[in-house]
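Running this now, will post back.
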Amino acid sequence: MHPLRFDHMPALGEEFRSAREARGLTLSDVAEQIHIRSVYLNAIENEDWKSIGAPVYVRGFIRTYARFLGLDAEDAVASFNRLAPPERAPASLATTTIVDERERAPVSVWALLGGLVAVVVVGFVVYEAWLLYGHGGGNNAPVAVASAQPAGPAGGSQSPAPGSSAAPTPAASPTPAAHHQLAIRLTERSWLRVTIDGKTMLEGILPAGTARTFTGSVADLRVGNAGGVLVSVNGKPPAPLGKAGDVVEQRYTL
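Update: finished.
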């Protein structure tokens, strides 16, 4: 079955409403399945774009809603583009420039912690290799580990003595990854707003390659192109927020 197209249709919102009602669905039913609040779905059906916000949000909501209803998502976005007012990019870029000055220090701290963790990991790998090839692995490995602890002597064997010089390297391993931090990197251009502990720290349309780090207790993130935004919380591996073109709101407790 081919998706319905919006060519020659008088009302974009009416097409969404008709498609939804034809499936016997309420706005609440749709909201639960596509994770978009029913107030925004209602705004689409009434073409009340101001209630949704920036055009980049509207496009993401329209694309997701159209795909769910089996409509032609790109035709729906094109129809909206013919109705939408032009975006005021300079204002957003000005906001971004102001915020950037406040975020240079946290980026330097993040880079320092990342380098420290890398050094610890390399030291641990060298130590493991020494246990395996220098001592022959097997029963000698536990003895070498015991000798590294200052609380008491190793048991019986004389082989731990050479290992005492290598033992301090893994002693640095308890250094934790960065806590209370939210790291963001853009692989595609996207609208982005970051609020840390109730204060908006970043808002605007950012290019691919942008990387930012924020420190705090609670982070609220809202993006207009979820597939192009990678997020890392407290040093964990970065992951995209969703699919390309999707609008996503997410809260993180750091």
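Residues 28 and 141 are 61 Å apart (CA to CA). More later if anyone needs it.
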